[in-house]
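Need tokens for this chain, all 271 residues.
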Amino acid sequence: MGDNYVISEIEKDHILFQLEQNKRSDNREFNQLREVSIETNYVGKAEGSAVVTLGDTKLIVGVKAILGKPFPDTPDSGVITTSAELSPLASPFFEGGPPSVAAIELARVTDRAIRESHSLDLSKLCVIPEKSVWILFIDFYILNDAGNLFDAAALGAIAALATAEIPKVKIGEDDEVEILEEKEPLIINHYPVSVTSYKLGKHKIFDANFKEERVSDARITFGFDEDDHIVSVQKGKLGVYTPLEIKEILKESLLVSKTLRKELMKALSKK
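Here are the structure tokens for all 271 residues:
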């Protein structure tokens, strides 16, 4: 992300020139991903966690669970809430303080893919309707921003949720809830992944690195479940897409999603 970073005209021209030659600065194909690594159970004190590396991009996702009251309009459903921390540790172009627009967008885009895919059955997180439900906090800590945080965050979120365990509870008199030491895994119904494409001039690329993001005119992120259903879409930056471009990107994004999900499921098979 790092929207405060301004790339030099020389660097910009060089990246665009290479694209005209059907090349990228790191010699990848336009739809080729960088190396993906997903390690689960990374944070011992979290209910679930994962560390994801995508090229030089690296982030940690942690899931914490607490008991709380449900929302009035969903009295028998648990709650999920997401947040992202883009600290100066990850990039000199991030600033400390309240969440930036970029951090809020990253959290919301990932939240939408999880929520709209019905990855979790929130009714299973209900302990006592209208009184007590599990609230899941999904927190993203960016260690290094080398491009494409959206897709890395989605991988980390699902990996952390899929390996999370929450305490069992016992309901006593007067609806008093006792948290037990024994735990049980969260039930994951779907495994969404996100695929982000960037438009640079007339060219469309996937898994953009940091400088490619800076040069780009437009960005679009699709969320897919394992049945190839589109579960979320987010358009970013000021550039525009034609209907034909959207159709072409969607087709290519679906293929890329299969590669990402393969890496996700491979990591989860080791849990």
